[in-house]
Amino acid sequence: MKTLDVALGERSYPIFIGGQLLGQSQLLAPYIRGRQVVIVSNETVAPLYLEQLRTTLSEYDIATVILPDGEQYKTLEYLNSIFDGLLEARCGRDVTLIALGGGVVGDMTGFAAASYQRGVNFIQIPTTLLAQVDSSVGGKTGVNHRLGKNMIGAFYQPQSVLIDTTVLATLDDRQLSAGIAEVIKYGLICDEPFFCWLEENMSSLLARDETALAYAIERSCRNKAAIVAQDEKEGGVRALLNLGHTFGHAIEAGMGYGKWLHGEAVAAGTCIAAELSRRQGYIDEATVTRIIVLTKAAHLPTQAPAELSLSCFNEWMAVDKKVQAGKLRLILLKGIGKALITADFDIALMNASIEACRESH
Ligand code: NAD
Ligand code: GLY
Question: What ligand 2 atom has the least distance to the C-alpha of 227?
Answer without folding.
Answer: 5
